[in-house]
Amino acid sequence: MALMQWNEQLQLGLGKMDKTHEEFVSHYNAVVEAAPEQFLARLDDFIAHTEAHFDQENRWMEQVNFPGCHRAEHDRVLVVMRDVRNRIERGDAFLGKRLMEELPAWFDNHVSGMDAALAFHLDSIGFDVETGVITPPEGDCSGSANAGGCACTSAPARAGAEQV
C-alpha cells in the first residue's frame, strides 16, 4: 500500500484544520507501515484520531449552522472504519487492506470539497476555531451566522441613509 503524502493541495489555510489533516495523514501512514501484528492497534489509533477530527469539525459546523451533509459523510466513514476494524479482529485482513487503499482518494476529495467549503465559510464569517467567536470583517454582514437577517450596516450605507 502506498503512503499518503502531505502536500500543498491538502492545506486550506485554516491552521487548526490543516494541522488535524496533517495528523490524519500521519496516522494513516502509521497503519500502512504497521507490521501485521500491529495493524489493528495502529488502526484503532487512526480511528480514535478520526473520531476526534470529525468531532472537531462537527462542533464548528453546529456553531455556525453549516449544512448537515458534511456531518453525514463523517458519520458514514466512521461506520465503515469501525465495521472493517471489527471484521479485521475476526480475521478478515483483506477488508483492512482494502479500506487503506480507498481512504487516500476519499480524503483528497473530502478535503478539496466539503472541508474546503467549510474552511471558506468559517473564514468568510470570521469564525475563530479556537474560541468559537464570530467576528465578521469590518462593515460586512454577509457572513452573519444569523442567516435570517443582518443588523449591521457599513458606514457609507448609514451616511447615505442619513442624507435621504
From TrEMBL:
Keyword tags: Iron, Metal-binding
Gene Ontology MF terms: metal ion binding
InterPro entries xrefs: Hemerythrin, Hemerythrin-like, Hemerythrin-like_sf, Hemerythrin_metal-bd
Residues in Hemerythrin-like domain copies: 16-117
Coiled coil start-end: none
Stated family: Belongs to the hemerythrin family.
Protein name listed in UniProt: Cation-binding hemerythrin HHE
